[in-house]
Each structure stands twice: as structure tokens, then as C-alpha cells.
Amino acid sequence: xxxxxxxxxxxxxxxxxxxxxxxxxxxxxxxxxxxxxxxxxxxxxxxxxxxxxxxxxxxxxxxxxxxxxxxxxxxxxxxxxxxxxxxxxxxxxxxxxxxxxxxxxxxxxxxxxxxxxxxxxxxxxxxxxxxxxxxxxxxxxxxxxxxxxxxxxxxxxxxxxxxxxxxxxxxxxxxxxxxxxxxxxxxxxxxxxxxxxxxxxxxxxxxxxxxxxxxxxxxxxxxxxxxxxxxxxxxxxxxxxxxxxxxxxxxxxxxxxxxxxxxxxxxxxxxxxxxxxxxxxxxxxxxxxxxxxxxxxxxxxxxxxxxxxxxxxxxxxxxxxxxxxxxx
Length: 328
Ligand code: NAX
Prior knowledge:
Elements: E1 5-10, H1 15-25, E2 36-41, H2 47-59, E3 65-71, H3 74-77, E4 83-86, H4 98-115, E5 124-127, H5 132-141, E6 150-152, H6 155-169, E7 176-177, E8 180-182, E9 190-192, E10 197-198, E11 201-202, H7 203-206, H8 210-232, H9 238-252, E12 261-266, E13 278-285, E14 291-293, H10 301-320
Parallel strand pairs: 1-2, 1-4, 2-3, 4-5, 5-6
Antiparallel strand pairs: 7-10, 8-9, 10-11, 12-13, 13-14
Helix pairs in contact: 1-9, 4-5, 6-8
Ligand NAX binds next to helix 1.
């Protein structure tokens, strides 16, 4: 067995972590011959719960789990790590506006962004804690870690969109490809069915019910998180954890030829998105582990309206936290 890969997970006593940690520790993400050392970050009030999670990790006797460090200090959690899964944040409470949540959680990502300077040179950072795109923007702007090493999660939205299209078309999920979710992990995101394919055919040629695509499909994907909360009484956790693993794998493994996946990364100005904004794009990963934003996709006037709507939302979020963006 090689040297352990050091992985930090924040919000380690929370719901998503309760699923993510066991899957990482089991070797599912980094391989059965790659030991993992987990650095678990929580707030002091959650340490009791976290100690129970650590007991359960021990009780799994995973051969790939080389060790666990528990801390409430970001500088300790991020020391020498090669992956940071930034899941921890305050959930949205009753009566809380999105802008309130941004202002409550934003400062967490200032301090954690600075602490990421202690990570390994090849660190990759995935921000999951909401509002994840703007939290990622804050962490990126408060860290010396190169911006291309940061991303935030649109993968749950991509997975939801693929499952919905496959269900409508009566095909296996694996038949759905080329699914971009543009913009923000919010109910303004635009899951792009115009450029997606089913069995190599345009979705619009397989599912010819355009009102269903434009209304039911888009709205269902946008509102899926709320639907899960309503049904389950708490927010998506196992599916979010699954998306974390899918996202991380997609960032490390070359993308299947011609296909793409969705993640939010720093804009380079592609598709008219303000440079520097963290925005959901279609991406490809190359053999050397670098990513490119897929170029040249066309959007109808209708789709561009959706795109601009979510772009404006992210511009507004950036305005709300502009005092937290050191580098801008
Ligand atoms: P939980 O409330 O179960 O867990 C969050 C944990 O974060 C708690 O244990 C809390 O103590 C901890 N925490 C709070 N502040 C912290 C800090 N400064 N440092 C370290 N830990 C801290 O939420 P959970 O269901 O696990 O969701 C976590 C986050 O993921 C939420 O912000 C949620 O909105 C977001 N989600 C993002 C998704 C995405 O696709 N990007 C989908 C799922 C999820 O909604």
C-alpha cells in the first residue's frame, strides 16, 4: 500500500458527511490500494456527535482507513491535505432569506480559505455547503491555492436531471449524456436539455414533448431539493454524498471522449459569464487531471433567458459578499 492520501471533510458530524465519510474510508473513491487519512473538522458543539461517527468508522475496520484526526481548527484540518470536501455550514432556518444565509455562512469560508494555504500543492477543493458557488468564490478569493483547484457542486443537479430524462424516455440512466447544468446550485439553475443526448441522439429528438422539457423537467430539477425536504423532513443527504463522490471522480479521471459533466468553477469569461464568478459549466477532465470548460455549445433564445436569469442571481450573491472577497 502507498502513502495515505490526506482528506479533509468539514461538517463531519452532519448528514451528508455521515454518508460521505464511510464511502471515502472504504476505498470507493481513491481505490482499494490507496489508504486514506481523514481530517474531520467540526464546530466545538458538534464534537460529541462526531466522536460517535469516529467510533462507527473504527467499527467498520476498513483496511483502507489509515487514521482519523478530529479537530475544530481549520488550520489543523487542512494541514498537508490533498482533498478538501467543504460540506460544513449553517443550514437555512425558517424565515431565513437566501441573502441571510449567504451573510451567515460567508465568513466561514474566509477563515477556511486562508487555512487552505496549509494544504498540499496538489490540493483539490470541493465546496458543498450552501450557497456553495458563492462560498467557493469566497474561499478562492481568500486563499493562495490556485483558483483552478477549486470547484463547487452541481453534480447532484446533473444526476437528478439525468434520472428524470431517463425516466421520461424509458431508457437506462447511462444512456443520458452531455448534461450541463448552468449557473447556480439554486432553484434558478438551468439544466440544459437542448444540448443533452439520449443514446447519442438529441434529447429533443427522443422526448418531443417540448412543454414537458421546458416546464416540468426544468422545474422538477430546480425544485427537487425542496421536494426531498418536504417528503423526508430533512434535506438530501445520501444523494448529495453520492454526488460528492461522482464529482471528485470526474475531477480526477479523464472524461469519456466527447462527453462532459457539470461542476461550478471559476469563469474565464466563457459564454459571457463574468470572469472570476464561480458558475456551473460543462467541463472535461484531461489525462493530466486538468479541466477545460467545454466551448461552442449553443443555447436557444429561450435557454439564454434562463441562463441570464441564473447569471444575474450569482452576480447579486457576489454583491452581497463583496467585502469578503479579498483578492477582487
Ligand atoms: P447538516 O446541518 O446535517 O451538517 C452541517 C454540519 O456542518 C453540522 O454538523 C455543523 O455543525 C457543521 N458546521 C457548521 N459550521 C461549521 C464550520 N464553521 N466548520 C465546520 N463545520 C461546521 O447539513 P448537511 O445536510 O450535511 O448539509 C451540509 C451543507 O450541504 C448544507 O449547507 C446544505 O445546504 C448543503 N447541500 C449542498 C448541496 C449541493 O448540491 N451543493 C446538496 C445537499 C445540501 O443541501
